[in-house]
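Notes from the pairing session

We agreed to fold both candidates in a single pass and log them together. This is the raw record for the first candidate, unedited. Please don't reformat it; downstream parsing expects exactly this layout.

Candidate A
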Amino acid sequence: MTIWIPDLSSYDGPKYLAIAQALEDDVRAGKLPPGARMPTHRELAFRLGVTVGTVTRAYGEAQRHNLIGGEVGRGTYVLEMQRPLSVYDVRSPEPSGVINLSMNRPAIGPEGDMLADTLRDIADSPNIKYLTEYQPANGMPHHRDAAAALLARLGFAVHGAAVILTNGAQHSMAGAAIALLGRGDVLLTERLTYPGLVGLAHSLGIKLLGVEIDAEGLIPDAFDAACRTSRAKAVYTLPTHHNPTTATMSRQRREDIIAVARRHGVIIIEDDVYGFQPSETPPPLAVIAPDQVCYVTSATKSIAPGLRVGVMVPPKKHKHAIGLGIQATGWMIPPLMGEVLTRWIQSGIAADLIHWHGEDARKRVVIAHDLLGGFDLTTQPEAMHVWLTLPDGLRPDAVVSAAIDRGVSVTPPGPFMAGKGPLPNAIRLCLGAAGPIERMVEGLHIVRDAIENPSAINFAMM
């Protein structure tokens, strides 16, 4: 648990608003990193000399502004924050002085120059006016054709008509959940899973049930048992570069998971946002069993996060319902972003960027292995993150707090938990968000020092 005692002397107005504003200021400054566990209501009230009700109102205000979240049994923790950019300029959103090893995104590559060239070409197009108009909810036909061509890299043989374009993978997941599940229904997933899914399930009133995993992800026998006892309608899984453990399913494991899903009539929601990263990987679940799998990927991790274009290939029998779910939550993708991605796919720029980000990730993973040698480190050759199991005697919250005190943000295991259960004694380190490799190296040195020198860690936080 983080030791957080805000100085309220410079804040006017009611105490609960002062606490909420101080919390927001510390989140923006990087003093409270994503995943940091907040003090309990009673503990913070005692430290500040206010009532528990005041802290409850303050936390409620912070939660309303999406600064913090929480669940019974897990406590209250800091969420990822969207920082507003200037109206008039384009600038880096990085908090000053903080080395970001907590956000799972690729390093910035050559895509900025490529975007500038592409926008100039689009500006000269005689049909640019069509990019300012409403377009089909599933995406413009030539954009969907291009997406289908991109998926051919992974083994798909589909036409554009089978594709739905979305505003990123999170939008795809929301549309699938709305179409396939109702309030109170059970959705299975890995015991540790993408935090965005946890928030989505909570928002839609879906019961999330974690399934045990191993070095290849979902364990078939555990998945089978969960299907038998839970009456789940669907399972969400990250079969390639699982977040946070980087576990990747073999071909056999994928077939075993599909067999279990077929036996119980469970739809698989396959999140393959990292699928373009590995140079070699088994085919997606949806290529093996297109009638059983709702496939989700995006341009975010391997091309450019800012495009915000997701690609779905749902089973034919669910395509209409999922399309309605997508339309209800986002109507359509911005045609301009779809046009940029389409031109990049057709020109080969998308393939070049996928290669660039894969090679950059490979370099960073090698460096991480070198700098963190001796620790229990789990990753893959072209993964964007590593999963570091801490030595006995150190708890994740303590390391997270010690790291941020030294100017580095990392992620504890709490946000990844799908329901209740023991927290793994591990942290996730993201390798791309730090920016230049030299800055990542600096951050990893700091993390190693924080772990190896427990005397520098405040054990009151453990």
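Candidate B (folded immediately after A)
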Amino acid sequence: MGNVSYSAHISNGKSAITSKSKLLGVAKHNLRKYKSPEYSSDNILLLRGTEDLYQDVKNVYHQEFDEAVQQYNQKQKRADRRIDDYFEHVANLDQDMAVEIIFQCGDKKFWEEHTDKKEKMYNVYAYLLSTMERLLPNFKVANAVIHFDEASPHMHVVGVPVWEGAKKGLAKKVSKRNVFTPESLSVILQDKLREEAGSCFKFNVKEELAEKKKGRNHDLSVMEYKVAKETEHLEELQRDVVDTDNELFASKLAYRQVQRENEDELREIKQEISEKQSENLKLDYAISYKRDKLEEYEDEISRWEQFKNTLKTLKEYISAYLPLSPLIEEFANCVEHKKDIEAGNSFRGLLNALGQFLRAFKELIVDGMCWFPRLMRWKTSKGEVAPVFSDYRNEGYDYRLKAYMNVVTKEKYSIDSIQEEIKLENRIGTLEQLEQGIVAAEEMVREMEKTRIRER
């Protein structure tokens, strides 16, 4: 096993979402509504929901509880016992009205050494989210977002714990305690999801997660997640800045958070800063801000150079593989026409050209079953899929199409349910498409560099 850290934090204690104001605070942080100078929409990626997290949660309440509330109200003889709006009703109770889970793979030190692999975490967190929804069906996800703008990429998931089976009151209600049981916290959140995350992390990042340590993370319901422990931005201070002992840092952070809000709020914060800081501190802030902007420009230049180097590498990769395009075409035609693939002569123990090519891309699923997701995929109504073949004794001489599998969720589909969509125009990831994409990307880089020069 590797030594890359994995953590899954569930909101609890001070971080518990027990009121509408706390839900608004989570929405403001997760979707960067305060628009700090470090904010970039390219680094805040939504996987579920919209840019209005508060409304996303309300929508889940309506979808899950409206029918149960209507049935409950019909049984009530007294008007004062009826519930008009279940969202407002729960908001006035002393309980969790929503739950937030934060997933993180790798600490600050790891990502400082693997900056070029950060973007791969989109695939890891997207797969982890879909797996969590499958393993915890009673946790209805309202909003999920990935943060790439901090030292370690991580994912915030906000949802509603829905429990059925109450003997009194509503037959269906919000209940964190009944959904996030000790078993689900330990077995699912820390064991099964850790295992699934490790598999996807290894496939995408080519590194292994560390094993779960004994005696650690045994009770996530009372563990406070310390994302800011190894990052420069200190997320916990961003959520609860009024509790920090560092008054100077809090004032500067508050100033940044309200810069883009309305003029009345901006004047109020400026007045507060003016009362709390001297002229020397204001001057110090201005110098610090200019330094930060200079570092941003330097980082921007570095990212552009890395992007151009990546394009160059991709072009060299395509040039190397273009001579193999007939073999790729032969493989794709066999899949689209449901033909068996004859890859060699088992009697002589020889592989033909296609067989040798497939062996280089083959990935074993279970004994006798394999697929080639890196070679060719098809876009379908089920998502991006790749064919699954039977391979007698794993010798690679003959392949027979058995099913299709989603490259992200790993869900399998029968041939009959999806074969009509496996055709030429639905191919993705071909060398021709990559080459066209690189040409377009190079043109975009040239135009954006011209625009950047004019703006400066």
